[in-house]
């Protein structure tokens, strides 16, 4: 399993009239978490694109538990629970406030796509290599 943690402060323009973080912005926070998780592996989305692979979102599931508010410091925990085995990769996201209360959970499924053919591609070898140490099987 691979996990990464990053923080984001809720900006005024991201809130709705009720003062809550607008529901549509949670996906943006997930994206920041994913990008930073990949960066933590010593890799970037840009490098994937330069290798001819893009990762569009195929599915997004969100569960809102508590609201986030303007100026809250949000901790975004992004987890890969399993090594991708096909053209899909699934990120689990958890958002916490400064009191460590769980605010929101989500699952984002992305698909590896070859830029030239626009067809599904497998897990890029460089990303596989960087993820491998986190998914080594242990014998009991």
How does the SSE layout of this entry go?
Layout: E1 2-9, H1 26-40, H2 45-50, E2 53-54, E3 57-64, E4 73-80, E5 88-96, E6 102-111, E7 113-114, H3 125-131
Antiparallel strand pairs: 1-4, 2-7, 3-6, 4-5, 5-6
Q: How does this model look, in words?
A:
- The radius of gyration is 16 Å and the shape is globular.
- The protein is built from three helices and seven strands.
- It has one domain (2-134): Thiol Ester Dehydrase, Chain A.
- Strand 4 (73-80) and strand 5 (88-96) form a beta hairpin.
- The protein is of the alpha+beta class and 140 residues long.
Order of helices and strands: EHHEEEEEEH
State the secondary-structure class: alpha+beta
| Domain tally | 1
Work out the helicity level: 10-25%
Summarize the structure.
The protein is α+β, with helices and mostly antiparallel strands. The chain has a single domain (2-134), classed as Thiol Ester Dehydrase, Chain A (Roll). It contains three helices and seven strands, in the order E-H-H-E-E-E-E-E-E-H.
